Protein backbone atom coordinates (compact mmCIF):
# COMPACT_ATOMS: atom_id res chain seq x y z
CA UNK A 1 0.00 0.00 0.00
CA UNK A 2 1.55 3.25 -1.12
CA UNK A 3 2.03 6.02 1.38
CA UNK A 4 0.50 8.51 -1.03
CA UNK A 5 -2.84 6.77 -1.10
CA UNK A 6 -5.66 8.55 -2.90
CA UNK A 7 -7.99 10.43 -0.61
CA UNK A 8 -11.68 10.88 -1.12
CA UNK A 9 -14.18 13.32 0.26
CA UNK A 10 -16.97 13.99 -2.23
CA UNK A 11 -20.60 13.42 -1.29
CA UNK A 12 -23.39 12.27 -3.57
CA UNK A 13 -27.16 12.48 -3.34
CA UNK A 14 -28.78 9.09 -3.88
CA UNK A 15 -30.78 8.93 -7.09
CA UNK A 16 -32.76 5.89 -6.04
CA UNK A 17 -35.77 6.88 -3.93
CA UNK A 18 -36.05 3.76 -1.80
CA UNK A 19 -32.35 3.73 -1.03
CA UNK A 20 -32.55 7.40 -0.10
CA UNK A 21 -35.29 6.66 2.41
CA UNK A 22 -33.39 3.75 3.88
CA UNK A 23 -30.26 5.87 4.21
CA UNK A 24 -31.95 8.64 6.15
CA UNK A 25 -30.53 9.10 9.63
CA UNK A 26 -31.82 10.67 12.80
CA UNK A 27 -30.19 13.43 14.83
CA UNK A 28 -29.25 10.80 17.39
CA UNK A 29 -26.81 9.33 14.89
CA UNK A 30 -28.87 6.17 14.62
CA UNK A 31 -29.46 4.01 11.62
CA UNK A 32 -32.40 2.26 13.21
CA UNK A 33 -35.26 3.84 11.30
CA UNK A 34 -35.23 2.94 7.62
CA UNK A 35 -31.68 1.94 6.92
CA UNK A 36 -30.08 -0.96 5.14
CA UNK A 37 -29.31 -2.42 8.56
CA UNK A 38 -32.91 -2.49 9.70
CA UNK A 39 -34.09 -3.59 6.28
CA UNK A 40 -31.80 -6.57 6.18
CA UNK A 41 -31.86 -7.61 9.82
CA UNK A 42 -35.54 -8.35 10.42
CA UNK A 43 -35.99 -11.97 11.41
CA UNK A 44 -37.95 -14.27 9.09
CA UNK A 45 -41.56 -14.81 10.05
CA UNK A 46 -42.84 -18.28 10.73
CA UNK A 47 -45.97 -18.69 8.65
CA UNK A 48 -47.82 -21.99 8.48
CA UNK A 49 -50.73 -20.77 6.35
CA UNK A 50 -51.57 -22.72 3.25
CA UNK A 51 -50.02 -21.63 -0.03
CA UNK A 52 -53.46 -21.06 -1.60
CA UNK A 53 -53.90 -17.48 -0.24
CA UNK A 54 -54.36 -14.64 -2.75
CA UNK A 55 -52.28 -16.17 -5.50
CA UNK A 56 -51.62 -13.71 -8.29
CA UNK A 57 -51.77 -15.40 -11.72
CA UNK A 58 -48.39 -16.07 -13.23
CA UNK A 59 -48.84 -13.65 -16.12
CA UNK A 60 -50.00 -10.86 -13.79
CA UNK A 61 -47.14 -11.44 -11.39
CA UNK A 62 -44.66 -11.19 -14.23
CA UNK A 63 -46.18 -7.87 -15.17
CA UNK A 64 -46.22 -6.65 -11.57
CA UNK A 65 -42.81 -7.80 -10.37
CA UNK A 66 -39.61 -6.78 -12.08
CA UNK A 67 -37.27 -9.42 -13.43
CA UNK A 68 -33.51 -9.13 -13.71
CA UNK A 69 -33.70 -9.38 -17.47
CA UNK A 70 -37.12 -10.02 -19.00
CA UNK A 71 -39.21 -7.11 -17.69
CA UNK A 72 -36.95 -4.11 -18.06
CA UNK A 73 -38.97 -2.72 -20.99
CA UNK A 74 -42.39 -3.37 -19.48
CA UNK A 75 -44.50 -0.33 -18.62
CA UNK A 76 -47.26 -0.95 -16.10
CA UNK A 77 -50.49 1.03 -16.31
CA UNK A 78 -50.42 1.69 -12.59
CA UNK A 79 -48.01 1.26 -9.73
CA UNK A 80 -48.36 -2.04 -7.91
CA UNK A 81 -47.93 -2.52 -4.17
CA UNK A 82 -48.39 -6.05 -2.78
CA UNK A 83 -50.42 -6.73 0.34
CA UNK A 84 -49.67 -8.93 3.33
CA UNK A 85 -50.70 -12.51 2.66
CA UNK A 86 -50.43 -12.25 -1.14
CA UNK A 87 -48.47 -14.93 -2.96
CA UNK A 88 -46.34 -13.74 -5.86
CA UNK A 89 -43.93 -15.03 -8.44
CA UNK A 90 -40.71 -13.09 -7.98
CA UNK A 91 -37.17 -12.85 -9.30
CA UNK A 92 -34.28 -12.08 -6.96
CA UNK A 93 -32.14 -9.29 -8.39
CA UNK A 94 -29.34 -9.03 -5.85
CA UNK A 95 -28.32 -9.58 -2.24
CA UNK A 96 -28.71 -6.90 0.41
CA UNK A 97 -26.52 -6.65 3.48
CA UNK A 98 -26.97 -9.68 5.76
CA UNK A 99 -27.76 -11.84 2.75
CA UNK A 100 -31.44 -11.23 2.06
CA UNK A 101 -32.54 -11.36 -1.56
CA UNK A 102 -33.81 -8.13 -3.14
CA UNK A 103 -36.80 -8.19 -5.50
CA UNK A 104 -38.47 -5.11 -6.97
CA UNK A 105 -41.89 -4.33 -8.34
CA UNK A 106 -41.83 -2.95 -11.87
CA UNK A 107 -42.81 0.72 -12.29
CA UNK A 108 -43.30 1.42 -8.59
CA UNK A 109 -39.86 0.10 -7.66
CA UNK A 110 -41.34 -1.27 -4.44
CA UNK A 111 -38.81 -3.51 -2.69
CA UNK A 112 -39.47 -7.00 -1.38
CA UNK A 113 -36.86 -8.75 0.77
CA UNK A 114 -36.65 -12.53 0.94
CA UNK A 115 -34.45 -14.66 3.16
CA UNK A 116 -32.52 -17.38 1.30
CA UNK A 117 -33.39 -16.04 -2.16
CA UNK A 118 -30.30 -15.75 -4.36
CA UNK A 119 -29.65 -13.60 -7.46
CA UNK A 120 -31.35 -14.91 -10.59
CA UNK A 121 -33.68 -17.23 -8.69
CA UNK A 122 -37.34 -17.23 -9.75
CA UNK A 123 -39.59 -18.33 -6.93
CA UNK A 124 -43.03 -18.25 -5.35
CA UNK A 125 -43.12 -16.12 -2.22
CA UNK A 126 -45.74 -14.88 0.21
CA UNK A 127 -45.72 -11.40 1.74
CA UNK A 128 -45.37 -11.83 5.50
CA UNK A 129 -44.62 -8.27 6.62
CA UNK A 130 -45.56 -5.00 5.00
CA UNK A 131 -43.86 -1.71 5.80
CA UNK A 132 -44.21 1.75 4.29
CA UNK A 133 -41.51 1.29 1.68
CA UNK A 134 -40.63 -2.39 1.62
CA UNK A 135 -42.08 -5.78 2.43
CA UNK A 136 -40.72 -9.11 3.63
CA UNK A 137 -41.44 -12.27 1.71
CA UNK A 138 -41.21 -15.92 2.71
CA UNK A 139 -40.01 -18.21 -0.07
CA UNK A 140 -42.43 -21.06 -0.64
CA UNK A 141 -41.12 -22.74 -3.77
CA UNK A 142 -38.25 -22.31 -6.23
CA UNK A 143 -39.29 -22.24 -9.89
CA UNK A 144 -35.88 -21.66 -11.45
CA UNK A 145 -32.64 -21.98 -9.52
CA UNK A 146 -30.38 -19.00 -9.07
CA UNK A 147 -27.39 -18.00 -11.16
CA UNK A 148 -23.92 -19.32 -10.26
CA UNK A 149 -25.44 -22.41 -8.65
CA UNK A 150 -23.20 -25.02 -7.03
CA UNK A 151 -24.10 -28.14 -5.09
CA UNK A 152 -23.96 -27.38 -1.37
CA UNK A 153 -21.74 -30.01 0.29
CA UNK A 154 -23.48 -29.70 3.67
CA UNK A 155 -26.73 -31.61 4.21
CA UNK A 156 -27.99 -28.89 6.55
CA UNK A 157 -27.22 -25.91 4.30
CA UNK A 158 -30.83 -25.35 3.21
CA UNK A 159 -32.15 -25.05 6.77
CA UNK A 160 -29.29 -24.15 9.11
CA UNK A 161 -28.85 -20.46 9.84
CA UNK A 162 -25.08 -20.59 9.43
CA UNK A 163 -24.38 -20.99 5.68
CA UNK A 164 -27.11 -19.25 3.71
CA UNK A 165 -25.08 -18.92 0.50
CA UNK A 166 -23.36 -22.31 0.36
CA UNK A 167 -25.13 -23.13 -2.94
CA UNK A 168 -23.80 -19.91 -4.50
CA UNK A 169 -20.37 -20.12 -6.12
CA UNK A 170 -17.67 -18.55 -4.00
CA UNK A 171 -16.77 -16.07 -6.75
CA UNK A 172 -20.40 -14.90 -6.81
CA UNK A 173 -20.43 -14.61 -3.01
CA UNK A 174 -17.40 -12.33 -3.14
CA UNK A 175 -18.92 -10.20 -5.88
CA UNK A 176 -22.16 -9.80 -3.91
CA UNK A 177 -20.36 -8.85 -0.69
CA UNK A 178 -18.18 -6.31 -2.44
CA UNK A 179 -21.23 -4.77 -4.09
CA UNK A 180 -23.06 -4.59 -0.74
CA UNK A 181 -20.19 -2.64 0.81
CA UNK A 182 -20.05 -0.32 -2.20
CA UNK A 183 -23.81 0.33 -2.07
CA UNK A 184 -23.73 1.09 1.65
CA UNK A 185 -20.76 3.45 1.32
CA UNK A 186 -22.57 5.34 -1.43
CA UNK A 187 -26.13 5.38 -0.11
CA UNK A 188 -25.53 5.48 3.65
CA UNK A 189 -22.04 6.99 3.76
CA UNK A 190 -22.91 9.47 0.95
CA UNK A 191 -19.60 9.00 -0.86
CA UNK A 192 -19.88 9.45 -4.63
CA UNK A 193 -18.90 6.50 -6.81
CA UNK A 194 -19.04 8.77 -9.88
CA UNK A 195 -15.72 10.39 -9.08
CA UNK A 196 -12.51 8.78 -10.42
CA UNK A 197 -10.95 8.82 -6.94
CA UNK A 198 -13.52 6.29 -5.74
CA UNK A 199 -11.81 3.48 -7.63
CA UNK A 200 -8.63 4.07 -5.66
CA UNK A 201 -10.51 4.24 -2.36
CA UNK A 202 -12.77 1.19 -2.75
CA UNK A 203 -10.48 -1.84 -2.85
CA UNK A 204 -11.43 -5.29 -4.22
CA UNK A 205 -12.56 -7.70 -1.52
CA UNK A 206 -9.89 -9.98 -0.05
CA UNK A 207 -11.03 -13.61 -0.44
CA UNK A 208 -10.58 -16.35 2.13
CA UNK A 209 -8.21 -19.09 0.96
CA UNK A 210 -10.03 -21.76 2.97
CA UNK A 211 -13.80 -21.85 2.51
CA UNK A 212 -14.53 -24.75 4.88
CA UNK A 213 -13.19 -25.88 8.28
CA UNK A 214 -12.07 -22.31 9.02
CA UNK A 215 -13.89 -21.64 12.31
CA UNK A 216 -11.95 -22.13 15.55
CA UNK A 217 -15.10 -21.83 17.67
CA UNK A 218 -18.57 -23.38 17.38
CA UNK A 219 -21.41 -23.37 19.89
CA UNK A 220 -24.14 -26.00 19.72
CA UNK A 221 -27.33 -25.96 21.78
CA UNK A 222 -29.24 -28.73 23.53
CA UNK A 223 -33.02 -28.83 23.23
CA UNK A 224 -35.90 -31.05 24.39
CA UNK A 225 -37.31 -31.46 20.89
CA UNK A 226 -35.60 -31.51 17.50
CA UNK A 227 -36.81 -29.08 14.84
CA UNK A 228 -37.47 -30.57 11.41
CA UNK A 229 -38.22 -28.46 8.30
CA UNK A 230 -41.82 -28.80 7.13
CA UNK A 231 -40.88 -30.43 3.82
CA UNK A 232 -39.01 -33.21 5.65
CA UNK A 233 -41.70 -34.10 8.18
CA UNK A 234 -42.85 -37.17 6.27
CA UNK A 235 -39.42 -38.64 5.70
CA UNK A 236 -38.00 -38.17 9.21
CA UNK A 237 -38.33 -40.80 11.93
CA UNK A 238 -39.83 -39.99 15.32
CA UNK A 239 -36.30 -40.11 16.80
CA UNK A 240 -35.58 -36.80 15.07
CA UNK A 241 -38.19 -35.03 17.21
CA UNK A 242 -36.77 -35.84 20.65
CA UNK A 243 -33.72 -34.43 22.42
CA UNK A 244 -31.73 -32.31 20.02
CA UNK A 245 -28.13 -31.12 19.91
CA UNK A 246 -27.31 -28.74 17.10
CA UNK A 247 -27.90 -25.21 15.82
CA UNK A 248 -30.88 -22.93 16.19
CA UNK A 249 -33.34 -22.75 13.32
CA UNK A 250 -33.02 -19.33 11.65
CA UNK A 251 -34.99 -16.72 13.57
CA UNK A 252 -35.99 -18.96 16.49
CA UNK A 253 -34.40 -19.15 19.93
CA UNK A 254 -36.36 -22.26 20.95
CA UNK A 255 -35.99 -24.54 17.93
CA UNK A 256 -32.86 -26.65 17.53
CA UNK A 257 -31.93 -28.37 14.27
CA UNK A 258 -30.13 -31.61 15.11
CA UNK A 259 -26.60 -31.48 13.61
CA UNK A 260 -24.14 -34.35 13.54
CA UNK A 261 -21.41 -32.62 11.51
CA UNK A 262 -20.57 -29.01 10.68
CA UNK A 263 -18.28 -28.29 7.74
CA UNK A 264 -17.16 -24.97 9.20
CA UNK A 265 -15.26 -26.54 12.10
CA UNK A 266 -12.26 -28.86 12.14
CA UNK A 267 -12.40 -32.62 11.67
CA UNK A 268 -11.37 -33.19 15.29
CA UNK A 269 -14.17 -30.89 16.50
CA UNK A 270 -16.62 -32.88 14.40
CA UNK A 271 -15.31 -36.05 15.98
CA UNK A 272 -16.10 -34.63 19.42
CA UNK A 273 -19.57 -33.60 18.28
CA UNK A 274 -20.25 -37.08 16.88
CA UNK A 275 -19.01 -38.70 20.09
CA UNK A 276 -21.31 -36.59 22.25
CA UNK A 277 -24.24 -37.23 19.89
CA UNK A 278 -23.73 -40.98 20.20
CA UNK A 279 -24.05 -41.17 23.97
CA UNK A 280 -25.65 -38.14 25.64
CA UNK A 281 -29.22 -39.38 25.11
CA UNK A 282 -28.52 -42.68 26.92
CA UNK A 283 -31.21 -42.89 29.67
CA UNK A 284 -28.70 -44.49 32.04
CA UNK A 285 -26.67 -41.27 32.08
CA UNK A 286 -29.65 -39.25 33.31
CA UNK A 287 -28.76 -36.17 31.24
CA UNK A 288 -31.57 -33.87 30.18
CA UNK A 289 -31.51 -30.92 27.74
CA UNK A 290 -32.38 -27.39 28.80
CA UNK A 291 -35.92 -26.27 28.01
CA UNK A 292 -36.04 -22.52 27.33
CA UNK A 293 -39.76 -22.37 28.10
CA UNK A 294 -40.03 -24.37 31.32
CA UNK A 295 -36.47 -23.46 32.45
CA UNK A 296 -35.74 -27.07 33.32
CA UNK A 297 -33.02 -29.47 32.23
CA UNK A 298 -29.26 -29.75 32.74
CA UNK A 299 -27.34 -29.44 29.45
CA UNK A 300 -27.47 -26.01 27.78
CA UNK A 301 -24.62 -25.74 25.29
CA UNK A 302 -21.65 -27.60 23.87
CA UNK A 303 -18.87 -25.21 22.87
CA UNK A 304 -15.83 -26.38 20.90
CA UNK A 305 -12.69 -24.24 20.52
CA UNK A 306 -9.60 -25.05 18.44
CA UNK A 307 -6.05 -23.79 18.86
CA UNK A 308 -2.43 -24.85 18.32
CA UNK A 309 0.30 -26.08 20.60
CA UNK A 310 3.01 -23.40 20.50
CA UNK A 311 5.81 -25.98 20.78
CA UNK A 312 4.64 -28.63 18.31
CA UNK A 313 2.27 -26.62 16.12
CA UNK A 314 -0.25 -29.46 16.39
CA UNK A 315 -3.97 -28.68 16.81
CA UNK A 316 -5.50 -28.76 20.27
CA UNK A 317 -9.14 -28.69 21.25
CA UNK A 318 -11.14 -27.35 24.19
CA UNK A 319 -14.57 -28.80 25.02
CA UNK A 320 -16.88 -26.67 27.16
CA UNK A 321 -20.14 -28.05 28.56
CA UNK A 322 -22.48 -25.28 29.70
CA UNK A 323 -24.93 -26.56 32.30
CA UNK A 324 -27.79 -25.06 34.30
CA UNK A 325 -26.65 -26.39 37.67
CA UNK A 326 -23.54 -27.20 39.63
CA UNK A 327 -23.06 -30.96 39.15
CA UNK A 328 -19.90 -31.65 37.14
CA UNK A 329 -19.81 -35.32 38.14
CA UNK A 330 -22.82 -35.93 35.89
CA UNK A 331 -20.56 -35.16 32.93
CA UNK A 332 -17.96 -37.78 33.84
CA UNK A 333 -19.23 -40.46 31.36
CA UNK A 334 -19.07 -37.93 28.50
CA UNK A 335 -15.60 -36.81 29.57
CA UNK A 336 -14.33 -40.39 29.49
CA UNK A 337 -15.59 -40.83 25.93
CA UNK A 338 -14.22 -37.53 24.65
CA UNK A 339 -10.72 -37.89 26.11
CA UNK A 340 -10.04 -40.77 23.70
CA UNK A 341 -9.72 -38.14 20.96
CA UNK A 342 -6.01 -37.11 20.87
CA UNK A 343 -6.58 -33.43 20.01
CA UNK A 344 -8.69 -32.85 23.14
CA UNK A 345 -6.43 -31.21 25.74
CA UNK A 346 -9.04 -29.36 27.80
CA UNK A 347 -12.57 -30.11 29.02
CA UNK A 348 -14.32 -27.52 31.16
CA UNK A 349 -17.78 -27.04 32.62
CA UNK A 350 -19.33 -23.57 32.81
CA UNK A 351 -22.27 -23.40 35.21
CA UNK A 352 -24.89 -20.84 34.21
CA UNK A 353 -27.87 -20.88 36.56
CA UNK A 354 -29.70 -17.98 34.88
CA UNK A 355 -32.67 -18.57 32.62
CA UNK A 356 -30.92 -16.74 29.79
CA UNK A 357 -29.27 -18.40 26.82
CA UNK A 358 -25.71 -17.19 27.38
CA UNK A 359 -22.81 -19.63 27.53
CA UNK A 360 -20.81 -17.62 30.09
CA UNK A 361 -21.00 -19.27 33.49
CA UNK A 362 -20.84 -18.01 37.07
CA UNK A 363 -18.55 -20.93 37.88
CA UNK A 364 -16.10 -22.92 35.84
CA UNK A 365 -14.65 -26.38 36.51
CA UNK A 366 -11.74 -27.95 34.69
CA UNK A 367 -12.74 -31.56 34.18
CA UNK A 368 -9.74 -32.67 32.12
CA UNK A 369 -6.35 -31.27 31.12
CA UNK A 370 -5.67 -27.53 30.90
CA UNK A 371 -8.01 -24.63 31.57
CA UNK A 372 -6.82 -22.80 28.42
CA UNK A 373 -5.55 -23.53 24.94
CA UNK A 374 -3.14 -21.45 22.85
CA UNK A 375 -3.09 -19.95 19.37
CA UNK A 376 -0.46 -18.11 17.33
CA UNK A 377 -1.36 -14.92 15.45
CA UNK A 378 1.09 -12.57 13.69
CA UNK A 379 3.97 -14.23 15.53
CA UNK A 380 2.43 -13.74 18.98
CA UNK A 381 1.07 -16.36 21.35
CA UNK A 382 -2.42 -15.96 22.81
CA UNK A 383 -4.06 -17.92 25.60
CA UNK A 384 -7.71 -18.74 24.99
CA UNK A 385 -10.05 -19.57 27.83
CA UNK A 386 -13.59 -20.90 27.50
CA UNK A 387 -15.12 -17.41 27.49
CA UNK A 388 -12.39 -15.18 26.11
CA UNK A 389 -12.83 -13.42 22.78
CA UNK A 390 -10.59 -14.43 19.90
CA UNK A 391 -10.96 -13.95 16.14
CA UNK A 392 -13.03 -16.91 14.92
CA UNK A 393 -11.06 -17.46 11.71
CA UNK A 394 -7.40 -17.52 12.78
CA UNK A 395 -5.92 -17.82 9.29
CA UNK A 396 -7.93 -14.92 7.89
CA UNK A 397 -7.38 -12.86 11.05
CA UNK A 398 -3.68 -12.97 10.18
CA UNK A 399 -4.54 -11.44 6.81
CA UNK A 400 -6.83 -8.85 8.44
CA UNK A 401 -4.21 -7.76 10.96
CA UNK A 402 -1.59 -7.43 8.23
CA UNK A 403 -3.95 -5.04 6.41
CA UNK A 404 -4.38 -3.01 9.61
CA UNK A 405 -0.62 -2.84 10.02
CA UNK A 406 -0.23 -1.66 6.42
CA UNK A 407 -2.86 1.04 6.95
CA UNK A 408 -0.99 2.33 10.00
CA UNK A 409 2.02 3.39 7.89
CA UNK A 410 4.26 3.06 10.95
CA UNK A 411 7.50 5.03 10.78
CA UNK A 412 9.51 2.19 12.21
CA UNK A 413 11.39 4.34 14.71
CA UNK A 414 9.23 3.36 17.70
CA UNK A 415 8.02 6.93 18.27
CA UNK A 416 4.27 6.61 17.74
CA UNK A 417 1.42 6.38 20.24
CA UNK A 418 -1.51 4.06 19.36
CA UNK A 419 -4.97 4.35 20.87
CA UNK A 420 -6.75 0.98 20.51
CA UNK A 421 -10.51 1.37 21.04
CA UNK A 422 -12.74 -1.68 21.61
CA UNK A 423 -9.48 -3.60 22.00
CA UNK A 424 -10.98 -6.88 23.24
CA UNK A 425 -8.18 -9.17 24.36
CA UNK A 426 -5.59 -6.81 22.86
CA UNK A 427 -4.83 -8.79 19.72
CA UNK A 428 -4.61 -5.84 17.29
CA UNK A 429 -2.69 -3.49 19.57
CA UNK A 430 -0.26 -6.18 20.68
CA UNK A 431 0.63 -7.08 17.08
CA UNK A 432 1.73 -3.44 16.62
CA UNK A 433 3.30 -2.90 20.04
CA UNK A 434 6.85 -3.89 19.19
CA UNK A 435 7.01 -1.22 16.46
CA UNK A 436 5.51 1.72 18.37
CA UNK A 437 6.24 3.66 21.55
CA UNK A 438 3.10 2.68 23.46
CA UNK A 439 -0.35 1.15 22.96
CA UNK A 440 -3.32 2.23 25.07
CA UNK A 441 -6.30 -0.08 24.82
CA UNK A 442 -9.87 0.45 26.05
CA UNK A 443 -12.44 -2.31 26.47
CA UNK A 444 -15.72 -2.64 28.40
CA UNK A 445 -15.46 -6.36 29.24
CA UNK A 446 -13.40 -6.89 32.39
CA UNK A 447 -12.35 -10.44 31.50
CA UNK A 448 -11.14 -9.29 28.09
CA UNK A 449 -8.99 -6.59 29.71
CA UNK A 450 -7.53 -9.21 32.05
CA UNK A 451 -6.81 -11.49 29.07
CA UNK A 452 -5.17 -8.60 27.20
CA UNK A 453 -2.80 -7.92 30.11
CA UNK A 454 -2.02 -11.63 30.35
CA UNK A 455 -1.34 -11.82 26.60
CA UNK A 456 1.05 -8.86 26.85
CA UNK A 457 2.96 -10.59 29.64
CA UNK A 458 3.00 -13.88 27.74
CA UNK A 459 4.67 -12.15 24.78
CA UNK A 460 7.07 -10.03 26.90
CA UNK A 461 5.41 -6.79 25.78
CA UNK A 462 5.86 -3.98 28.31
CA UNK A 463 4.64 -0.98 26.32
CA UNK A 464 0.90 -1.78 26.31
CA UNK A 465 -1.67 -0.53 28.81
CA UNK A 466 -5.24 -1.84 28.86
CA UNK A 467 -8.08 -0.02 30.60
CA UNK A 468 -11.60 -1.18 31.41
CA UNK A 469 -14.22 1.35 30.34
CA UNK A 470 -17.47 1.76 28.42
CA UNK A 471 -16.77 3.75 25.28
CA UNK A 472 -20.48 4.47 24.87
CA UNK A 473 -20.49 6.46 28.12
CA UNK A 474 -17.43 8.65 27.85
CA UNK A 475 -17.37 12.28 29.01
CA UNK A 476 -15.19 15.29 28.26
CA UNK A 477 -12.38 13.97 30.48
CA UNK A 478 -11.95 10.71 28.55
CA UNK A 479 -8.28 9.95 27.80
CA UNK A 480 -7.26 13.41 29.05
CA UNK A 481 -4.42 11.90 31.08
CA UNK A 482 -2.93 10.10 28.06
CA UNK A 483 -0.49 11.45 25.48
CA UNK A 484 -2.08 12.42 22.17
CA UNK A 485 -2.10 9.40 19.86
CA UNK A 486 -0.68 9.46 16.36
CA UNK A 487 -2.88 6.56 15.29
CA UNK A 488 -6.35 5.53 16.48
CA UNK A 489 -7.61 2.01 15.83
CA UNK A 490 -11.31 1.50 16.45
CA UNK A 491 -12.96 -1.91 16.17
CA UNK A 492 -16.54 -1.45 17.44
CA UNK A 493 -19.17 -4.15 17.61
CA UNK A 494 -22.16 -4.23 15.27
CA UNK A 495 -23.90 -1.01 16.43
CA UNK A 496 -20.82 1.00 15.49
CA UNK A 497 -19.53 4.01 17.42
CA UNK A 498 -21.64 6.18 19.73
CA UNK A 499 -21.90 9.83 18.72
CA UNK A 500 -20.01 10.76 21.92
CA UNK A 501 -17.02 8.77 20.72
CA UNK A 502 -17.21 10.27 17.24
CA UNK A 503 -17.19 13.77 18.76
CA UNK A 504 -14.16 12.78 20.85
CA UNK A 505 -12.27 11.56 17.77
CA UNK A 506 -13.07 14.74 15.86
CA UNK A 507 -11.76 16.85 18.75
CA UNK A 508 -8.71 14.61 19.19
CA UNK A 509 -7.54 15.08 15.58
CA UNK A 510 -5.20 12.12 15.42
CA UNK A 511 -3.29 12.00 12.14
CA UNK A 512 -4.81 8.68 11.16
CA UNK A 513 -7.82 6.57 12.12
CA UNK A 514 -8.09 2.91 11.18
CA UNK A 515 -11.71 1.78 11.41
CA UNK A 516 -12.17 -2.00 11.55
CA UNK A 517 -15.81 -3.00 11.10
CA UNK A 518 -17.92 -6.15 11.21
CA UNK A 519 -21.00 -4.20 10.05
CA UNK A 520 -20.62 -2.23 6.79
CA UNK A 521 -23.90 -0.37 7.38
CA UNK A 522 -22.92 1.28 10.67
CA UNK A 523 -19.37 1.64 9.36
CA UNK A 524 -20.65 3.66 6.38
CA UNK A 525 -22.67 5.85 8.75
CA UNK A 526 -19.66 6.50 11.00
CA UNK A 527 -17.38 7.23 8.04
CA UNK A 528 -19.92 9.80 6.91
CA UNK A 529 -19.81 11.49 10.34
CA UNK A 530 -16.02 11.47 10.52
CA UNK A 531 -15.60 12.88 7.01
CA UNK A 532 -18.63 15.15 6.65
CA UNK A 533 -19.72 15.76 10.23
CA UNK A 534 -23.24 16.01 11.60
CA UNK A 535 -24.63 19.38 10.46
CA UNK A 536 -27.78 19.14 12.60
CA UNK A 537 -25.52 18.96 15.68
CA UNK A 538 -23.03 21.53 14.39
CA UNK A 539 -20.33 18.87 14.17
CA UNK A 540 -17.74 19.39 11.47
CA UNK A 541 -16.04 16.45 9.75
CA UNK A 542 -12.24 16.48 9.71
CA UNK A 543 -11.13 13.34 7.86
CA UNK A 544 -10.70 11.99 4.33
CA UNK A 545 -11.38 8.38 3.50
CA UNK A 546 -8.21 7.15 1.80
CA UNK A 547 -9.00 3.43 1.52
CA UNK A 548 -11.75 0.95 2.25
CA UNK A 549 -10.84 -2.72 2.12
CA UNK A 550 -13.56 -5.41 2.42
CA UNK A 551 -12.34 -8.75 3.77
CA UNK A 552 -14.23 -12.03 3.58
CA UNK A 553 -13.69 -13.56 7.01
CA UNK A 554 -16.57 -16.06 6.85
CA UNK A 555 -17.31 -17.72 3.49
CA UNK A 556 -20.88 -18.93 2.84
CA UNK A 557 -22.27 -16.42 5.36
CA UNK A 558 -23.50 -12.85 4.99
CA UNK A 559 -20.81 -11.42 7.30
CA UNK A 560 -18.31 -8.90 5.92
CA UNK A 561 -15.32 -7.27 7.60
CA UNK A 562 -13.90 -3.93 6.44
CA UNK A 563 -10.64 -2.10 7.14
CA UNK A 564 -10.94 1.65 6.51
CA UNK A 565 -8.15 4.19 6.59
CA UNK A 566 -8.91 7.86 7.31
CA UNK A 567 -6.45 10.75 7.15
CA UNK A 568 -6.77 14.08 8.94
CA UNK A 569 -7.53 16.89 6.52
TrEMBL record:
<dbReference type="InterPro" id="IPR030391">
    <property type="entry name" value="MeTrfase_TrmA_CS"/>
</dbReference>
<dbReference type="InterPro" id="IPR010280">
    <property type="entry name" value="U5_MeTrfase_fam"/>
</dbReference>
<dbReference type="InterPro" id="IPR002792">
    <property type="entry name" value="TRAM_dom"/>
</dbReference>
<dbReference type="Pfam" id="PF05958">
    <property type="entry name" value="tRNA_U5-meth_tr"/>
</dbReference>
<keyword id="KW-0489">Methyltransferase</keyword>
<dbReference type="InterPro" id="IPR029063">
    <property type="entry name" value="SAM-dependent_MTases_sf"/>
</dbReference>
<dbReference type="GO" id="GO:0006396">
    <property type="term" value="P:RNA processing"/>
</dbReference>
<keyword id="KW-0949">S-adenosyl-L-methionine</keyword>
<feature type="binding site">
    <location>
        <position position="391"/>
    </location>
    <ligand>
        <name>S-adenosyl-L-methionine</name>
    </ligand>
</feature>
<feature type="active site" description="Nucleophile">
    <location>
        <position position="518"/>
    </location>
</feature>
<feature type="binding site">
    <location>
        <position position="491"/>
    </location>
    <ligand>
        <name>S-adenosyl-L-methionine</name>
    </ligand>
</feature>
<protein>
    <recommendedName>
        <fullName>TRAM domain-containing protein</fullName>
    </recommendedName>
</protein>
<dbReference type="GO" id="GO:0008173">
    <property type="term" value="F:RNA methyltransferase activity"/>
</dbReference>
<comment type="similarity">
    <text>Belongs to the class I-like SAM-binding methyltransferase superfamily. RNA M5U methyltransferase family.</text>
</comment>
<dbReference type="InterPro" id="IPR012340">
    <property type="entry name" value="NA-bd_OB-fold"/>
</dbReference>
<feature type="binding site">
    <location>
        <position position="443"/>
    </location>
    <ligand>
        <name>S-adenosyl-L-methionine</name>
    </ligand>
</feature>
<keyword id="KW-0808">Transferase</keyword>
<dbReference type="GO" id="GO:0008757">
    <property type="term" value="F:S-adenosylmethionine-dependent methyltransferase activity"/>
</dbReference>
<dbReference type="GO" id="GO:0001510">
    <property type="term" value="P:RNA methylation"/>
</dbReference>
<feature type="domain" description="TRAM">
    <location>
        <begin position="81"/>
        <end position="141"/>
    </location>
</feature>
<feature type="binding site">
    <location>
        <position position="422"/>
    </location>
    <ligand>
        <name>S-adenosyl-L-methionine</name>
    </ligand>
</feature>
Amino acid sequence: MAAAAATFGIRSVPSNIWLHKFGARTAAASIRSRSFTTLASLSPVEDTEDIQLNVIPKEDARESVSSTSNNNNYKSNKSYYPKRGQTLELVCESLAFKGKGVCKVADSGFVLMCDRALPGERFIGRVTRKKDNYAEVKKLKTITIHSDYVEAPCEYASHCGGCKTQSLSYEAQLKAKEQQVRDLVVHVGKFSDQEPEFTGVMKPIVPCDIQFHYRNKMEFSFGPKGWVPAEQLQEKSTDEFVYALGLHAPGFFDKVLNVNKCLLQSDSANEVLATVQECWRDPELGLSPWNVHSHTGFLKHLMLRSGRNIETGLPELMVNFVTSSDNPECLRPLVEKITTIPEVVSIVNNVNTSIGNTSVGEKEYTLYGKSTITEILRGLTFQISANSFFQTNTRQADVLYKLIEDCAFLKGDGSEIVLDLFCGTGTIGLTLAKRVKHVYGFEVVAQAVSDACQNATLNFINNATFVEGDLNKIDSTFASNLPKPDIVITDPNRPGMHIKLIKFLLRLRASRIIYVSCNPATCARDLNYLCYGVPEQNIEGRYRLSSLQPVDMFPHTAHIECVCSLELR
